[in-house]
Amino acid sequence: IEVMVALTIVVALLSSCAALSVGRIVPSPHLVAACRIVPTPHTVLNVVTRRHVSRAREPRCGWGPEPVWSELSIASIEDAAEGLKAVTITPADGTADGFTVPGQYVQIRQPGAEKAGFFAIASAPGASGPFEFLIKETPPSDWSPGTGWLTGAEAGAGLDMSQVMGGGFKIAEHIDEVERVLLFAAGSGISPIRSVIESGALSGKDVELYYGVRTPAHAAYLDKFDAWSDLGVQYTLCVSAADTAPLQACTGYVQDVAKAAQAFSSAPEKTLILMCGMKGMAMGIKEMAAEAGIDEARVLANFEV
Q: What is the C-alpha to C-alpha distance for residues 236 and 249, in angstroms, rounded to an integer?
């Protein structure tokens, strides 16, 4: 009986936490896709945040460290694109010290709630000011509280935020061995990709970004693309709803547009891929990269369990 009890006890319950899932668009060297979209100005509300740190009694996910919650509030919130909100939160004292790699994330929940969401930090490590996030409006589910409580809130609304978590994009392990970097993002997946670009980690490399959205109205960070171009990043906007694509944009999913542009087959032994988006996009990119001879160890996501 004792043996049976012991065997019964040895059970691990792992919760699968979902990944976190244009101004001037500069043409890639393989494919011309340039257009100018003027962003709509938005009102930004700013407030003083409150800070209180408490340790959770239970982990909120089956992997990763136990969250240490800080009681904070929304510093600002504005429309970033259709279905997306730009949210800023001033972290608790010392929290920013843990943000060292683009692609890292935090957990955010309603004050005292059991379930939390996982959100990649959009601003770059070391950037001054509050943490910036790009948050998609999503309904609640069995594993997630959804984001309506957050995207529908106003500046000053209270929330709990964890310490910085995750290893982010493991760029440092590969960057000295490559000459090219392909960036793939879909929807709100542009958030950690923005962090990579603005961190300067890709300086001196040939960088191409393929950004996929359903329609141009769903594209975030329109006002940042000129600055990214100045950093040497080339852009292609990929619109999946063909009837809404501007004449200068590309129609289709990011992986298909990149393959048509021969982005995967150009110097595969010297290419690094960073991606953030839905599962179908990630699987397609991995398959095409493998076909082109790109080492699978150089196809990176910011969420690695």
A: 7
- The β-bridge relationship of strands 233-239 and 206-213 is parallel
DSSP 165: B
- DSSP assignment letter at 41: P
* CB neighbour burial string for 285-305, b if at least 16 within 10 angstroms, e if fewer: bbebbeebebbeebbbbbbee
User: pLDDT tens across 263-287, in order?
Assistant: 999 999 999 999 999 999 999 999 9
Q: Give how far Cα 124 sits from Cα of 101, 146, 194, Å.
A: 8, 25, 8
DSSP code, position 251? E
Question: CA 232 to CA 229: how far, in whole Å?
Answer: 5
Question: Residue 51 in contact with residue 93, Cβ under 8 Å?
Answer: yes
pLDDT, tens digit, for every residue of 46-89?
A: 333 334 455 443 333 345 689 999 999 999 999 999 999 999 99
Please, what's the b/e burial string for 184-204 (b: 16 or more CB within 10 A of its CB; e: otherwise)? bbbbbbbbbbbbbbbbebbee
| Contacts of 257 by beta carbon, 8 Å cutoff, 6+ apart | 31, 210, 236, 238, 250
pLDDT in tens, 84-124: 999 999 999 999 999 999 999 999 999 999 999 999 999 99
| DSSP category for residue 187 | G
- Residues 258 and 33 sit within 8 Å (Cβ to Cβ): no
Q: What Cα–Cα distance (Å) separates residue 127 from each residue in 48, 80, 123, 170, 237?
A: 19, 20, 7, 19, 26
